[in-house]
Amino acid sequence: MSYLYLVVAVIGEILGTSLLKASNGFTQLFATLGALLSYGICFYFLSLSLKTINLSVAYALWSGIGIVATTAISYFIWKENLNFMTIIGLVLILLGIVLVNLFSNH
């Protein structure tokens, strides 16, 4: 169940970050409220997942998947540019997530 909580936390983080962009510096009321609500849900479910998942594993998954998904959203939705070095960095983040999960004591 803890990994389900972590999935909800990741989705909340991705949605919150996307709405943060849409809030245009907190000038758009509904996007701002959505971002705050999403982050609240995100941190609540992240805290639930930490009851049984090691902090290092949970945080690596939460932040790493969030970074990769948010980058994809920024490219496809917000039409922001990606360069080769950004892609290499994302691959290294994913590799780091795999290594943390493989060599941590769950």
TrEMBL record:
<comment type="similarity">
    <text>Belongs to the drug/metabolite transporter (DMT) superfamily. Small multidrug resistance (SMR) (TC 2.A.7.1) family.</text>
</comment>
<dbReference type="Pfam" id="PF00893">
    <property type="entry name" value="Multi_Drug_Res"/>
</dbReference>
<keyword id="KW-0472">Membrane</keyword>
<keyword id="KW-0812">Transmembrane</keyword>
<feature type="transmembrane region" description="Helical">
    <location>
        <begin position="84"/>
        <end position="103"/>
    </location>
</feature>
<dbReference type="InterPro" id="IPR045324">
    <property type="entry name" value="Small_multidrug_res"/>
</dbReference>
<dbReference type="InterPro" id="IPR037185">
    <property type="entry name" value="EmrE-like"/>
</dbReference>
<feature type="transmembrane region" description="Helical">
    <location>
        <begin position="58"/>
        <end position="78"/>
    </location>
</feature>
<feature type="transmembrane region" description="Helical">
    <location>
        <begin position="26"/>
        <end position="46"/>
    </location>
</feature>
<dbReference type="InterPro" id="IPR000390">
    <property type="entry name" value="Small_drug/metabolite_transptr"/>
</dbReference>
<protein>
    <submittedName>
        <fullName>Multidrug efflux SMR transporter</fullName>
    </submittedName>
</protein>
<keyword id="KW-0813">Transport</keyword>
<keyword id="KW-1003">Cell membrane</keyword>
<keyword id="KW-1133">Transmembrane helix</keyword>
